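Entry 14. Structure prediction run on the chain below.
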Amino acid sequence: MRTTALLLALVASATFAAPANAAVQESVQADLDGDGVLETVTTEQVAGDSTKQLLSTTIRGLRLTALVPLDSHVGPLPLRVVDLGGDGTDEVVVAESVGANTVGFGVWGLFGGLRPVTASDGSALRVWEGGGISALNGYGCEDSGGGRSLVTVDARLTNRPQGIYTGKRVTYSVVDGVATETSRAAVAGAWDAPGFQVDPAACA
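Output returned:
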């Protein structure tokens, strides 16, 4: 499954090419407050502004919204449900930027409102997929006795004749909407080297 996930990332340029009938709304079911009841989370292009999408949900009768960046050439992409902390409380991964070969995502959850997961410095966390031939980008999760970790991979093709990529593998602990780096390792090798393998489905 991990190898398949990375192969899909390598062809992200084809996967995320803008269709002529790009969606203007996407929705998903997620348990944002961890009470066992699924909420409907919706994102839709803001009327009159193709660079923004409105992320919204209703929890216990209260409607929550957030404005999120949107790639105007693609429109809203399908939302993904994750549980980055492994605590039974879901977050939603939202596509915010789409390049020729790479897609950038923000992660949103219920943190005193509908807000993004942040890095320890307070900046919004971004995860990436794709890279085409010249780069490898991806994210996934790993479960261990110490809990769940978010894992990101970022590498560049540094030896084209031999197909060698050089980059890093970083793990984070996500607690209460804050992603704190717990480890960082240099990785070098072919695209299918173990250090480059991540599985987004493991974050569900």
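Confidence is low (pLDDT under 50) at residues 1-21.
Filed with the rest of this week's runs.
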